[in-house]
Every structure is written in C-alpha cells, then in structure tokens.
Write a structure and sequence with these properties.
Helix content is 27%, strand content 26%. By secondary structure, it is α+β, with helices and mostly antiparallel strands. The radius of gyration is 14 Å and the shape is globular.
C-alpha cells in the first residue's frame, strides 16, 4: 500500500498478489463526508457526485491505520482496479 499527495489531495493505492492487480481507493461521496454539516434540505436535494480518487487526510489516516494494524478496512472504503 502506498499514498501520494498533490494539490488536489491524497491518492491511496495497493497491489494484491502479482504485478497485474493494482487498485486505487475511492473517496467517500461528498454526502458521506459532510452530511452532518449540511442543512437537511441540502442533503435531501443535493445531487450525488461521482466518487473520485482524491481522499482527505483523515481518510488516508483511517485506511493506512487499518492496514498497519491488520484491522478490517473502513466500511466506506471501496477499491477500483487500474492498469499500470
């Protein structure tokens, strides 16, 4: 597992098995991240945006900690396979 930071945010990647199986973590949907801060009407009518690869620092900490401690991955975490 590895991570990279640039001006857009953090990317977390992992390899499972051989060199052909690379995955990127998918960021939480915006409504999953800040729904507790949003007014009720905004949460109801806000359109869901597609998940991207850029995570925030707290999400990276959660993903890397679970990996390091051999704990289950966070429930929100999904992986998308990509070609190297």
């Amino acid at each position: 597992m590895q991570c990279k930071h640039d001006e857009a945010g953090w990317i977390v990647e992992k390899r499972e098995g051989d060199e052909e199986h690379h995955f990127r973590a998918l960021a939480r949907r915006p409504d999953e991240v800040d729904s507790h801060d949003s007014p009720v009407m905004k949460r109801i009518f806000d359109t869901r945006r597609q998940r991207g690869w850029y995570l925030v620092q707290d999400d990276v900490d959660e993903v890397m900690s679970s990996y390091l401690l051999a704990e289950p991955e966070p429930e929100w975490l999904e992986w998308e396979r990509f070609e190297v």
